[in-house]
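[job 0417] fold request received: Hydrolase
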Amino acid sequence: MLIDPTQSTLLVIDVQEKLIGAVSDPAGTLARTRWLLGATAELGLPCVFSEQYPKGLGPTVAELKEAARGAEVVEKLHFSCVAANCLPSSLMARKQVIVCGMETHVCVLQTVLGLLALNKQVFVVEDACDSRTAYSKATGIQRMRDAGAQIVTREMVLFELLGSASHEKFRTLSKTFLVGEQP
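[job 0417] inference complete; emitting structure tokens
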């Protein structure tokens, strides 16, 4: 199955100010998530940010919110966005959810399992996910794969959203997101 731009939403889970420093690759995670947000925003894909207990853990990292102006932000106390019942109806109305964020083996995993239980088609962007340890991330990714989530990369998302080199934004997006050194 391919990502359908008319049926998908990007969900960025808990990339928050007081959490980002705890993951294994904070700078890389931010850069790759910003890349994904920039590419999907150029294509008009809807985006939702979740925040785990923002009073204590702070808001979503500002540079990410800047990359996806107008994105909806939802708060939660449950690790799973599904269990927290915080996902907006606009996201729930679509059949596909592209997921990234942290921590891979906790909030991302539990949200993805919840979305799969709701019969959503879920695409986990592996290179825009992180955990405190590489082992925890790898274990979370494997469990999501075993449960039926599609494990993808940022470039896979971009090319599937474009669909063809004849897409009106292909040249611009390739120059911005595919040429030169990328995060």
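[job 0417] notes: The chain has one domain: 8-115+126-177. The radius of gyration is 15 Å.
[job 0417] exit 0
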